[in-house]
Specification:
By secondary structure, the protein is an all-alpha fold. Helix content is 79%, strand content 0%.
């Protein structure tokens, strides 16, 4: 009887854990890529992704910003998660594309209507 109770309780706990993990995975996948993304990243997180996109390794980035490699790694992971990216490389690409799109919009706003026609 004791074994049956433990087995049942363990099974219920495992099912609850699987449901929780599935919900967390779903939330990560459906994270929006809206206009507020750049504002959600801190300047430090942005700077780290820009340094990574320029080709620096984590240890080099850590030396450049005078932080420990673990702090850099943690901050880059947070930035990746905020962008809804699967990898740091994808996060850097998304940020670069986002910046290019935003700068293109800003330059078009500065043009007069006649010069666009």
């Amino acid at each position: 009887m004791y074994d049956d109770f433990n087995h049942t309780a363990l099974r219920q706990w495992l099912v609850a854990l699987q449901v929780t993990n599935a919900r967390a995975d779903q939330e990560r996948r459906v994270r929006s890529w809206g206009d507020g993304v750049r504002e959600r990243l801190t300047p430090f997180e942005r700077h780290l992704l820009e340094l990574m996109a320029s080709g620096l390794k984590r240890k080099e980035i850590a030396r450049a910003v005078n932080k420990s490699p673990q702090t850099v790694s943690n901050s880059m992971t947070v930035a990746k998660d905020k962008l809804g990216a699967r990898s740091l490389a994808e996060a850097a690409v998304r940020l670069a594309r986002r910046d290019a799109t935003a700068s293109g919009r800003a330059s078009r706003k500065g043009q007069s209507k006649e010069s666009r026609d």
